[in-house]
Design a protein that fits this description.
- With about 350 residues, this protein is α+β, with helices and mostly antiparallel strands.
- The protein has 3 domains: about 80 residues, Arc Repressor Mutant, subunit A; about 160 residues, GAF domain (Beta-Lactamase); about 90 residues, Heat-inducible transcription repressor hrca homolog, domain 3 (Enolase-like, domain 1).
- The protein has 14 helices and 11 strands.
- Strands 3, 4, 8, 9, 10 and 11 form a 6-stranded antiparallel sheet that branches. A 3-stranded antiparallel sheet has the order 5-6-7, with helices on one face. Strands 1-2 form a two-stranded antiparallel ribbon.
- Strand 1 and strand 2 form a beta hairpin.
Length: about 350
């Protein structure tokens, strides 16, 4: 734990560096922040912060920049005291979302666009996904004498297809009859409900049911949908990306959507905003970046994730309040769409 004065000086260094993007000198701290102590005292405190790993001084006689440890201390203070988005901005954001038709893709695109602009970083938003998918429609199409295509329409308009082979010839007429029977029998059911369902099925029907269960189980294992990414033009205006090599690394990282998507399950926590800073990231490619992320949706039913990625020199207060508020807006909209009409 840092002493109060030492912690205050560290937070000043982090705040100044986030704003100015250049090392912060002891004299600047004294001149701009009126701490009531001498320059020598501030220099001693800065030296202590360097010894304990909270700051780095690129040059011995130069100013200080925060380390990941310093950013973490700053973030813990900011999280406790994070200001809300101003009321006029809240009203504007709410109005923008309610102007958009009830289309999930429109909501996610708007959320990503707004977050990227608000934080001048890259925004990541996934569409809301039910924790347990349910069957809406089942269709079987004959392709060859003993090969068919299972077309499965799930809730949220998710279309899945699966090839299925039989050990005998099955006509399209037979498949259509089975589609009608199983479509009615399976409508609205989850994987767990399908497995628990009693009833006598023919060997062909059981084979089709097994294929349907497998498709749905695979879908349930994917916690989040493909992320929508926005804001490359905003983040590239940051000083960290004035060098072409840094820009190239960033673009390559964002193009690896599998990597970005794989980060979400371990980062997101229910009911709060999570901040991952620099070396705290599991992926080596993310070590130079910070992520602010949250989950939105209807707890226990349907969830999505949203957040921002930027350099460790990120405006954390703004990022946290923006992610939190946009997440709350999306949660309200999703609740209206998924819960309201169906349960009223």
């Amino acid at each position: 734990m840092l002493a109060k004065r030492t912690g205050n000086i560290l937070d000043i260094i982090v705040g100044e560096y986030i704003s100015m993007a250049r090392p912060v000198g002891s004299e600047a701290i004294v001149e701009r922040h009126g701490l009531g102590v001498s320059s020598a005292t501030v220099r001693n405190e800065v030296a202590r912060l360097e010894e304990e790993g909270y700051i780095i001084r690129p040059h011995i006689s130069g100013g200080a920049i925060p380390s990941d440890k310093g950013y973490r201390h700053y973030v813990e203070s900011v999280v406790r005291e994070a200001e809300e988005i101003p009321l006029d901005e809240q009203r504007m954001l709410s109005h923008l979302f309610h102007q958009v038709e009830q289309e999930l893709s429109e909501w996610t695109h708007l959320a990503a666009s707004l977050l990227a602009r608000m934080v001048c970083s890259v925004a990541i938003v996934t569409s809301p996904k039910a924790l347990s998918c349910r069957i809406k429609h089942l269709e079987l199409v004959a392709l060859q004498e003993s090969l068919a295509l299972v077309i499965l329409l799930l809730q949220e308009a998710r279309l899945k297809q699966q090839l299925i082979a039989f050990d005998k010839v099955v006509s399209q007429g037979e498949l259509s009859a089975i589609s009608g029977k199983l479509g009615t029998l399976f409508h609205g059911l989850t994987v767990a409900q399908l497995l628990a369902q009693d009833g006598v099925l023919s060997p062909i029907e059981q084979h089709i049911k097994n294929a349907v269960v497998q498709v749905m189980a695979d879908e349930d294992r994917r916690r989040y949908e493909e992320p929508y990414i926005e804001g490359l033009r905003h983040i590239l205006t940051q000083p960290e990306f004035t060098h072409a090599q840094n820009m190239l690394r960033l673009v390559e990282m964002l193009e690896s959507r599998d990597m970005v998507r794989s980060l979400l399950p371990e980062m997101v926590v229910d009911g709060g905003v999570r901040i991952v800073i620099g070396a705290e990231n599991r992926e080596d490619a993310m070590k130079g970046y910070s992520i602010v992320v949250t989950q939105y949706g209807v707890p226990g039913e349907v969830n999505g994730a949203l957040g921002v990625i930027g350099p460790t020199r990120m405006p954390y207060g703004r990022a946290i309040s923006s992610v939190r508020y946009v997440g709350s807006l999306l949660s309200e909209l999703v609740a209206e769409l998924y819960v309201g009409p169906e349960r009223q």
